[in-house]
User: Fold this.
Amino acid sequence: MKIKSAAAQKILNSNSNYTIQVKVETESGFFRGSSPAGESTSQYEVAQFGSGIDAEIKNFNDFLQTLKNKEFTRIDDIYLLERTLPEEFIGGPSLSLSYALVYALSNSLKIEPYSLFGKKSLVLPISKMLGGGVHTSNLGMDIQEILVTTISGDLRESINGTLSVYKELKELLKNSTYSFLGGVDPEGGFVTSLDNYESLKLVRKAVEKVIQKTSMDIRLGMDMAASMFFKDGKYVYNRPIYGKKEVSREEQIDLVKKLEKEFDLYYIEDPVDETLIEDYGEILSDSHALIVGDDVTATKTDRLEAAKGKMNATLVKPNQVGSLYKVKAFSDLADKFGLAKVVSHRSEETCVSIISDLSVGLAAKYLKVGINRGERVEKINRLLELN
Ligand code: PEP
Ligand code: MG
Assistant:
């Protein structure tokens, strides 16, 4: 396919902040890509707009003129363009352009976008039930996310199981004395005034109720996003957990192990600070769960190399690294190390559902995405289309 024109503009993301959209015109029509952002970011991820969004869009529009009449016939042509992009555009601009090009290229080849990435797998959703941490402005629990998923089975069953827990949880919240006014956080998790321990207990109760009715294998997980409350060598909780508000590195490791045992946690993301790779290993050595890197690995191959043997799963968030060839390299390395891959949404999303295609085409185990809010449901619906 040949590019007739390409232009960038500012659009809003799901959290009412501006992001970039790139629109590419080919002989077959217009194709769009836009990039998400995170509220809880890692120090290792690339900046989305290094010199500010307005300046970046202006400069990027100048650059996009140079793409006129450029031919793309395979995914490697997109990877090659990414490799030669000026460094200043790596982040929101580069990723939005690559997404638009993926849609344009797959249209011209008459194939689904996922198949450009080489594989095809069954991907199950892992979804947020309760929100906390920075996603609820540090007003709720400290654990950023309490999640549920199914271990195996068919996609439709898995979605039904997750949805049933979500609805059961809403009933439990409505009928409780806890302060709950029906609100959800940016990723669709309910927002309550429960503390960390009460939150885990309540989601476990909802899971048990659904298991009783359906005998599905539904499991509990959490993203602690622990870097967000690691201050001067201590984890500082707003709400006490096992009776403590400030815990040392060693105490945090014990606390996570205790939570895993008590709640039979299947999925534990970022249980310790992103700089403390050794501590992930300490938890893994005594765990039956998926110990998942997010802020610690930041979709960067050098971070994954350093984390080898210290975790058994990793998130894949394309905008942490800003280009698809780096995402592919990261995914290949995760495969080489035998890690489970979890392609993930960000807290500030757009309606583009390409992460669903990426999860299938990179053969990830899970897609971490909300089960509520239009921009998330769009991605679940895309999974349904592909399976
Ligand atoms: C996460 O931390 O896993 C997450 C999806 O949130 P954010 O996009 O805010 O990093
Ligand atoms: Mg995370």
Observations:
- The mean pLDDT is 97.
- Residues 188 and 372 are 5 Å apart (CA to CA).
- DSSP finds eleven helices and 14 strands in the chain.
- The longest helix spans residues 155-174.
